């Protein structure tokens, strides 16, 4: 079984379209998304329409939950006061512009999706198996990975939220952070898609990097009234 995972699309329709075309050309059985469909870029409604139209199922991110329920806070963390202010502007913008239909879609997303492939169990979720706003970076100690694995009876865990892709294997368990389609933060601005192939003997991961029209998204961010700050960060992938 070969699946493609679209992490953190964040309103970036250009990136999603490019990721989709590239993925389809690779002969994939199924595509899943990992939530966080809006925020930072303006096309949350279009992203939801695209996913619905192409029957791409997925899970609920912290941003989806907080936008859909008109919460006070997006559940994101900040590194400095400027980032906090910008993040609040993006969150308010997204709550205001997400349509009722979009919010209904976001509300209905499940917390996780479990799959069976070649005798292995696969679990998809946004951030961690129990909380959708905890940042699970590669640098976390192995103890953290083992704790997370203990919470769920599964062989392969696939998640996002940090926007930094990695794969780690510990005691026979496979941990895959799929990175981000629409807002990478690992210094590579191209859309990131995780291709995961599961056979009886092996789990193979390939992080596809897909170029797209970043300039078009950057312009749309400004044109639609979101902070130019996010256009700059998109180009720098941070
Ligand atoms: Fe997130």
Structure description:
There is one protein chain. With about 240 residues, the chain is of the alpha/beta class. It has a single domain, classed as Metallo-dependent phosphatases (Purple Acid Phosphatase, chain A, domain 2). Helices cover about 35% and strands about 20% of the residues. It contains 8 helices and 10 strands. The strands form 2 sheets. It has a 5-stranded mixed β-sheet with strand order 3-2-1-9-10. Helix 2 crosses helix 5, helix 3 crosses helix 5 and helix 7 runs antiparallel to helix 8. The relative contact order is 0.20. The model has no long low-confidence stretch (mean pLDDT about 95). The chain binds fe (ii) ion. Fe (ii) ion binds next to helix 3.
The structural class is alpha/beta
The name CATH uses for the topology is Purple Acid Phosphatase, chain A, domain 2
Q: Note the beta-strand portion.
A: 15-25%
Which of globular, elongated, flat, extended, rod-shaped describes the shape? globular
List the strand order in the largest sheet: 3-2-1-9-10
- Calculate Rg over CA atoms: 17 Å
| The CATH architecture | 4-Layer Sandwich
Distance between the termini: 32 Å
CATH superfamily: Metallo-dependent phosphatases
Ligands in the model, by name, code or SMILES, are: fe (ii) ion
The structural domain count equals: 1
Order of helices and strands: EHEHEHHHEEHEEEEEHH
Oligomer: single chain
User: Residue-averaged pLDDT, rounded?
Assistant: 97
Low-confidence blocks of residues = none
**Helical coverage, percent range:** 25-40%
The largest sheet, given as strand count, sense and whether it forms a barrel, is: 5 strands, mixed
């Amino acid at each position: 079984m070969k699946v493609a995972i679209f992490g953190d699309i964040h309103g970036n329709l250009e990136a999603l379209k490019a990721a989709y075309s590239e993925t389809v050309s690779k002969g994939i059985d199924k595509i899943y998304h990992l939530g966080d469909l809006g925020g930072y870029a303006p096309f949350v409604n279009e992203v939801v329409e695209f996913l619905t139209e192409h029957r791409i199922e997925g899970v609920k991110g912290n941003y989806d939950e907080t936008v859909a329920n008109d919460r006070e806070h997006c559940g994101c963390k900040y590194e400095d006061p400027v980032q906090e202010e910008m993040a609040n502007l993006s969150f308010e913008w997204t709550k205001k512009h997400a349509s009722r239909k979009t919010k209904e879609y976001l509300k209905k997303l499940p917390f996780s999706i479990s799959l069976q492939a070649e005798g292995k169990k696969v679990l998809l979720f946004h951030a961690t198996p129990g909380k959708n706003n905890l940042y699970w970076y590669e640098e976390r100690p192995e103890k953290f990975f083992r704790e997370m694995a203990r919470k769920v009876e599964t062989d392969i865990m696939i998640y996002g939220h940090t926007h930094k892709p990695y794969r780690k294997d510990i005691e026979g368990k496979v941990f895959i952070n799929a990175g981000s389609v629409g807002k990478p933060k690992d210094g590579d601005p191209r859309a990131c898609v995780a291709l995961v192939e599961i056979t009886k003997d092996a789990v193979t991961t390939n992080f596809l990097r897909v170029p797209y029209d970043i300039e078009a998204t950057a312009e749309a961010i400004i044109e639609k009234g979101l902070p130019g700050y996010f256009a700059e960060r998109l180009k720098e992938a941070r």
